[in-house]
Each structure stands twice: as structure tokens, then as C-alpha cells.
Please model this.
Amino acid sequence: MKTIKILFLFVGMLVSGALSAQEFNKKDINGMWKRSDGLIITISGVGTFSDGGHALVFAVGNSGWSQSCVKRCWKFREIQYKEGNQWSANNKMYMPTGDYTKDDGTVTIKMADDKKSFTAGGFTYYKN
Model:
């Protein structure tokens, strides 16, 4: 009887683990995201366009990005789904001395299991 209880406990743990495992879709990254410094981006086109999606700056908060970048500058370009909870993107950096953005290499975007946040380039973005 004790063996059967242990077996049921083990099977129950396996089933609950399988149920809690999160599956990701390439379009999960699309939407509006906010950093703690107030930078808000909206990501669109991932899983739709062959060259990937893009992240437009929607608000700058206290991020150091200029107000002139709102709805004009890209934070990420060519966002492509890789696998699991990961995407890659060309990162853009704001240059305040000339009021422009420049390429800052490729970043890996890693989404949390609950799909409510992701990290990229040392920052965490939260679903807005």
C-alpha cells in the first residue's frame, strides 16, 4: 500500500511539472513593455515579417533617451525568434550629443516563464 501511495505521489509530481511547463510562441514578445526607468517600447511584427519585428520607443521616462525619440526611434530592430524563451535583436543605443541612435550589437532577449517580463542588454522589461 505504501508503494502505491509513493507511486501516485511521483506520478502526480510529473503531471504537475508537465502542466506548469510554459510553451512559447514567436509572437509572445509582441506588445508594450516598460522598464523601471520609464522607457516604454512597443514591439510589433515578430512572427509576421521576414526581417523580424521592431521595438519603437513609446515613452522615455528617466531613461536618458530624448523626448524627441518618442514614436520616432527604434530600441530593437530585426527581432527574430530563436527557440524556447529566447529571441535575438539588433540593439540600438541613444547618443545624446547628436540626438540619434546607433547600432550597439546583438542582444539576446530572454522571456520569463510567466511571459510577463523579459531581460535584454542588462535591463528588465515588464508587460505594460
